[in-house]
Amino acid sequence: MAKPLVFIDGDQGTTGLLIHDRLRDRSDLQLATLPAAERKDARRRAEAINACDIAILCLPDAAARDAVAAIENPAVRVIDASSAHRTTAGWVYGFPEMDAGQAQRIATASRVTNPGCYPTGAISLLRPLIEAGLVPRDYPVSVHAVSGYSGGGRPSVEQYEGPQGAQAPAFQVYGTALAHKHPPEMQRYTGLDHRPIFVPAYGAFRQGIVLTIPLELRLLASGVDGKQLHAALARHYAGATHVRVIPLEETKTLTHLNPQALNGTNDMDLGVFINEEHGHVLLSAVFDNLGKGASGAAVQNLDLMLATAS
After folding, report:
1. What are the residues whose beta carbons fall under 8 Å from the beta carbon of 196, sequence distance 6 or more?
2. Residue 52 catalytic?
3. Rounded to whole angstroms, how far apart are CA atoms 140 and 119?
4. Given 34, 117, 232, 283, the catalytic residue
5. What is the pTM of this model?
6. Where is the active site (predicted)?
7. What is the CATH number of domain 5-115+294-309?
8. What is the pLDDT of residues 191-210, one digit of tens each?
9. Angle 125-129-131 (CA atoms, 0-180°, nearest 5)?
10. Helices marked H in the chain
């Protein structure tokens, strides 16, 4: 039986390069990319995508839509790492741990949309709590996250690693118009009734994310406490290979969260920090924005899809 042919369209960007690195030594698949001279040739790109078994799109949104529109071969399956199709009907959301059936949906899908890096953290924390009835769907959610500068793509990498890198800010909050593209994705897949407030930032490190969501117990259902929130997350992710819920005994002594702690992996740590005196809870997610937040998630989804093709 021929090995499945995987075509990476856009392997020169940060996400595409890391996907290529993770796949290039695999013996269970054939890997295809386009040479530099052909990357902007619409005919060659269409030929390549229609000749593969699974295409991984690491492109700007408009180019990703064009690539999908060029598919004429009904057997071609797609993983889109852009944000072009994250809320599009007919596309399966590529977060395998989202619920009990999601990994199987991804495995059998023809169109998979990779989650955004920030939404991966927000959805992982909120969706199980909302589904368990512990956090109301109309809760006024605020999400704060700090990512490595690679989250801004090539322009941001050049800002920090180029000739003027010494002048780049150590920390910068952005998205102050509160119109970032990620809140609709967060709202849809968490199950919130209202758009969350999202405040993203970049730090002067290449990759990694710390994402936090504050909760006030007085705004939750009567009797809900931090231990119940932690227990619900622990139940949801019991047995998950790539998502760990930090034990409460560990969070009691954990005073800092390092955004780079899981760099180079496809893993994510979720925490529940409780201040009983003030009735405050802080939910946290730490992961690699280029791992579980991008290339690692794409390869995880690819492996699920390949398992059904073998």
Report:
1. 122, 141, 142, 143, 183, 186, 187, 190
2. no
3. 16
4. 117
5. 0.95
6. 117
7. 3.40.50.720
8. 999 999 999 999 999 999 99
9. 120
10. 14-23, 42-51, 61-69, 102-108, 117-131, 153-161, 182-190, 226-236, 248-251, 296-309
